């Protein structure tokens, strides 16, 4: 196989040198060029035709978001955002992922040698990703749209969702379809610690239910969505009785903290069949074992299909081990979840619909 051709775009010469050195350690990656700003990068893209671009957020002449939007509209290709750990950069990075960036890497992470392998793996996965042009109609505040599922009444089940690469766009798509009185929903999205607060705030603005970072001890309530904080802890659910969020400072699982497997396993233990699990786009296998625990406990389980996954990694492994009851395209996953968590006045059992 030909090596993945990478163009590095960053106004810092030091960062360009560091990224080049890290990527060149992998023989499957070739750094074909550098650019100090988007204007130079535009010329280099035409000249070098790279497979993947790494892109800084704050740069002279044109910021990374403006440049990313032009790329995704005019020449869609895999872009990995490399940003600082500032609140401003965190918000900008979330927006970049929403626009269509493949993933985000924190510059501060390069103080840890393990980040080198992460960057290399991310670049190679990006080269294989199904990049789509930027949609003409971008997601908007769900509260400004006509109410969906106005007749929805929850049946007491809990929803657990796991996602990784591509998860920003996927979660916005799913949660923007949830009604204000959605079932209690817990989410683990692989994301650097500095970014989860901004992402929770973004989801809260775009969703009818309340969305916030999970807090240790918080009770799970109807109409509330809880996002696992990044970095230091795993999000678990404790029960029986009043279900609560628990943040545990234990070792990473599958290389991740928070881990989807940890969340799903805790939901299976605390709720048994009174839950629904959904695994969305992402690299690796995190979540497959936990989702299998949920299905074995009687929960309904859903996996994003290959055609709509930016990276068909986590959903694929979950499907292959038998954890997924039904695969669905991204735009139908919310409908499947709501079908399984809707109260039936006639007492009939909720089942996944054959078609939607």
From TrEMBL:
Phosphorylated by CheA. Phosphorylation of the N-terminal regulatory domain activates the methylesterase activity. HAMAP family: CheB_chemtxs. Residues 5-122 form the Response regulatory domain. Belongs to the CheB family. InterPro entries: CheB-like, CheB_C, CheY-like_superfamily, Sig_transdc_resp-reg_Me-estase, Sig_transdc_resp-reg_receiver. It is found in: Cytoplasm. The gene is cheB. Its main location: cytoplasm. Residues 152-344 form the CheB-type methylesterase domain. GO terms for biological process: chemotaxis. SMART domains: REC. GO terms for cellular component: cytoplasm. Involved in chemotaxis. Part of a chemotaxis signal transduction system that modulates chemotaxis in response to various stimuli. Catalyzes the demethylation of specific methylglutamate residues introduced into the chemoreceptors (methyl-accepting chemotaxis proteins or MCP) by CheR. Also mediates the irreversible deamidation of specific glutamine residues to glutamic acid. The modification 4-aspartylphosphate is found at residue 56. It comes from the Bacteria. Keywords: Chemotaxis, Cytoplasm, Hydrolase, Phosphoprotein. It catalyses: L-glutaminyl-[protein] + H2O = L-glutamyl-[protein] + NH4(+); [protein]-L-glutamate 5-O-methyl ester + H2O = L-glutamyl-[protein] + methanol + H(+). GO terms for molecular function: phosphorelay response regulator activity; protein-glutamate methylesterase activity; protein-glutamine glutaminase activity. Its EC number is 3.1.1.61, 3.5.1.44. The active site is at residues 164, 190, 286. It comes from Aminobacter aminovorans (Chelatobacter heintzii). This is Protein-glutamate methylesterase/protein-glutamine glutaminase. Contains a C-terminal catalytic domain, and an N-terminal region which modulates catalytic activity.
